[in-house]
Structures are given as structure tokens and as C-alpha cells.
Amino acid sequence: MTVQVAGQVQPVPFTVQAIVTSSDLQFDQTEVDFGSCSVYHLVRSSVRLTNMSLLPQDFGFVAVPEFIEVQPNDGFGTLLPQETLEIDLIFGPKKAKEYNFQLCCKSGINRDFLLSCQGVGVRPPLVLSHSLVQFRPTAVGDKSCAIIYLTNQHTDCNQSKEPTTQLTKDVMKVDGPRLFCFCLPKDSEISISPSAGRLLPGERCLVQVMFRPRLLDHEIKEEALRQIHCAKLISEKEQEINRPTEQE
Length: 248
Prior knowledge:
Largest sheet: 5 strands, mixed
Number of strands: 17
Shape: flat
Strand content: 35-45%
């Protein structure tokens, strides 16, 4: 560098120091496979996003498809230098088909980092009319009943209005009747009838769900011991309160 002073050009030496850093954001994997997922459920997969820079970087997942949810903070945030954040990708297919797509993570300096994803949406042949059963308040010794329906919706994969590929056809393949079985926890207060059976294509079955609350022997003993312990504490407290009066 030179500086002109009073008509004379004089060199001015100086030193420039700088640290050159990357501006990359890096995923710990290049492709995410959600596998097969029912159109009535969600599948979650996690990826790790790392800031390779020595400076903080803003990021955000843009143009996210409607069948994908990105968390936390809906896919937006700031990564500190060299920081790694776990990102949850939630896949909820709406149709029975193959999904191949790319998620775009855009950095604060307008750079795009792509993540390839794939999954298969499956429409299960057996569908319940309700996914949640809520019983009314029920006393011990009484019972409450709820009715749900189990339907074999699949009749023929070739009759589906939704476009399918060979992979989805293999997953959805129907071979005659479908068997079903309800598995309840041990000592459950819930009973289901029928608990097992089979449904022909297009057939619907009424299922009765019964709730009979009861007290188990160990629960009765625990409550009795608790009551005895509380009564003992109250008695001891009353004795402490009355003791000064007796001395007077």
C-alpha cells in the first residue's frame, strides 16, 4: 500500500490477519428412509445438523411438504459455531403411495442444503371407527360399555383410485380374509368382544369394549395401611397438644 503526502509517495507497510471459515451446514446422513407408514399414523426420524462454521448461522427448512413436520421450532433456529442440533422429521402420509422428496434447509447467507427423503404411505385393510374410547365415570363394581366398528376396507388393490406402484401394491396386497386379534395388558379392567376373528374384504364387525373397574387385593391392603398410619399420626398429635394441659 502506498500513501501520497505532500506530493511524495511513501510506502506504508501493514499486516492483515484473518481466519477463513466455512459456511457449510452438514447433515449426519444424506438420505432418510421412513419405511412403510399407515395413512392414519406418524413416523418420526431424527437427523443431526451441524454448523461447520466458526460463526453463528441462522437456518430454516423452507417449502416443507404438507405431509412432513420439522421440529423443534418448525425447523427454524440458530446454530452456534460448531454446534450440532438434533432435528425431528415427522412423516404423516395422506395417501397410499411412494414418496420421494427433498427437504431444503436454507442458511442465513441464502445457501441451500438438501436432504433426500423417501417413504411409503400404506392404507391398512383393517380400520377402527375410533382411535380413542372415553368411558363415563364408573364406580367400582359397575361397568361401562362402548361400541366401535372394525372394517376391512380393502376389496381389490386394482380398484383403488389412488395411483400405486409395485412397492405399494406389495405392501397393500390382499389375500382373502384378514385375521384380527386384540391384545390386552395382564389384569386389565378392559374386556373386548370379540377379541379375535376374521373379516372378509368389505366386511364390518361390531366390537364391544367393556370397562369394569375393580380394586385389587394389594390396593385394598395398601389403602388400609395408609389409613392406619394416618390415624396413628393424628392420635400422636392430639396427645402432644393435650400433654401441657394435663401437667397444669
